[in-house]
Hints:
Blueprint: H1 5-19, H2 26-42, H3 47-61, H4 64-67, H5 72-88, E1 105-111, H6 117-131, E2 136-140, H7 146-159, H8 172-186, E3 190-194, H9 203-216, E4 220-226, H10 231-244, E5 248-252, H11 261-270, E6 274-278, E7 286-288, H12 291-299
Parallel strand pairs: 1-3, 1-4, 2-3, 4-5, 5-6
Antiparallel strand pairs: 6-7
Helix pairs in contact: 1-2, 2-3, 3-5, 5-12, 6-7, 8-9, 10-11
The structure holds guanosine-5'-diphosphate.
Amino acid sequence: SDMFDALSERLSGVFDRITGRGALSEKDVDAALREIRVALLEADVALPAVKDFVSKVREKAVGETVIRSVAPGQQVIKIVHDGLVELLGGEGEPERLSLEGEPPVAILMAGLQGSGKTTTTAKIAKRIAEREKKKVLVASLDTRRPAAMEQLAQMAEKAGVPSLPIVAGQTAVEIARRAMSAARLQGFDVVILDTAGRTTLDEEMMGEAAKIASETRPREILLVADALTGQDAVETAKRFNERLKLTGLVLTRMDGDGRGGAALSMRWVTGLPIKFLGTSEKIDGLDAFDAKRLAGRILG
Ligand code: GDP
């Protein structure tokens, strides 16, 4: 099963009703848009994003050139498709990480505990090492949970990427500094810092992450959010972005059977690019985010 199955099915029902016929009236288009609106809301897409999407699509779809054309239904479907691509971040090339600059370049990983942050850190490390042929070091800054440090070390081993040796008793900022200087001395190109996660958003966690950011000047600050948590994930991204100036998002558990609303709302609500999707627990379960591909998957 697929996260977007229910939405896809609903939309294809709407499309069937507007294509199996010759002419379309403005009323037909509005009826279709009403159904699309309900389908998006049922998929847990944020209301303001749905409103904006529907009004943009309507503006293009009710014009004479569309409804008087030879195949108006097809044209409406194309407009919906383009609107969806835009909602997801636009036509451009899939998002890439920005790794330019004097090495070692830091990437900061943030997110709530359980979002998949540590797993994603290792996945991204492997990807950069393999695809960009860069020397990557990972370091866990989770001083409160020794198990989390151990977990990153194990995941990094699976990824074939070295992790910073664990030294007990250091603060997160001290570990971040040690990671950067070890990377400098040992010629690493990229250092991925896995910050501590908490179960709830709190000031202490935010403050610590902000301090690490000002210390290491990361090129990327990525928020990892669990797509299965729907609008909570969107709210989390908003809150983190207010404090941390995120550069991008990673949505995990896209292989789960959520409703898809987080993936469809994130970009619109936060203005931030979705850079990757987590697609399994496995170390290779990471896809570069591609708006066109995802729109295609949803519209079938
Ligand atoms: P953290 O607490 O945020 O560091 O989360 P972890 O990296 O420990 O991940 C929590 C759980 O989610 C682990 O069991 C991971 O294997 C799992 N996980 C992470 N990303 C994904 C994903 O994209 N899909 C699935 N199915 N599971 C994932």
